[in-house]
Amino acid sequence: MASIEEVPTDNAEAYDLYLQAIKERSKWRGSATFKAMKPLLDRDVALDPNFLRAQVLLAETYGRLLWTGEDPDRIYGAKTLELVTDIRRRWPDRIEGHLALGHYYYTVERDYTRALAEHQAVEEVFPNDMEVLNSLGASLKRLGRFEEYLRYMRRLVVLDPENALVAWNLIEALIGNGLLEEALVAADEGVKKFPEDYLWPLNHAWYRLFLLGDVKGFLSLGERLRKEGRWAQAGSDLTWLLYGQGYVKTALEHAAARMSGKYGWNDMFAETDRAMILRVEGQDDEAQAAAEHALDFVRLWIETERPFPNTNTRSWYTLAAYCAAIAGDLEAVTKYRASSFAAPVDEYVIEDETLLTNVQIDALLGDAAAGWTRIVSLLGTHYPLLITAEYAVTWSTYLIQPS
Fold this sequence. Notes:
By secondary structure, this protein is an all-alpha fold. The protein is 73% helix and 0% strand.
């Protein structure tokens, strides 16, 4: 098999575009990372259709756009399969075919066991390749194999100490193994080391909030983001933290700031948060109007049989049921919950988040005991950061531990 480490292309411009895409990949900004990579790599493979490594990275990029919820019509998912099939047809004896197939299993099928197997086959030949090791670590994380995940992340930090994504993944691996003090040290170091990465201050404040209870630090960052015109980036956690600290008006303003103007799922989440706060505050008419508006969006999306933003069908139906619960539409709650329970089980982290959403639904339906039973089932489990500010504040507001 040909070496991944060979000179990948004779086209200097194509190689430069590839390096730019690799640089983008070293920073995690969710779908924004892959939106930035796509035009670089599209142009790259147009300049050199035989640039195999660029073809593989483009396949992952299309798959990641689906994985991060940016492919409601499944165009990118189909494109990923097309690219991977073409790679394996044109280069049947190249190890990169296993790399591409692993990306497909991970991003499109969400079959992390098969993705891991494909990438392990590549690791046997090229044990120090960054893309391969990153991919292995990602599958191990999704499978909840945190001890192995940490071993890979420690190796990657040595291989590429200037990689912001690797540094961030190391923190996740440390937390997954219960090494919280070391994780905090790594987070403190990372926010100083990567000042140009605008998400590091937010993520750093987030971890300090959940590991140290640093409410003041998170609120301070929120105010800074507000002054910089980036207030929405703090997301639902800030909305609920503001509310939990008694800043009701500011929490509602923040929820409104998260609305994009072009109504989509993120807008629905923001409006649902707003409706929930209004409901708890006793402003039922305004809460009902917001909840029904959000539910209308959800209902139309489902009834017209549009695919969900990504393939986590079970969690999307649960979120639809939560929206219906806030609106008081018990028929829709029952319908969407039934669809959720009938859908395939998601990866364990998504499953736990789905369970926590069901806690909120139980509480809204007046069954606090059922909700508390679900919470207890998660206490002391594999992932210490499952309880977010949203859930914590919501529980303290309307979910009481049964005596």
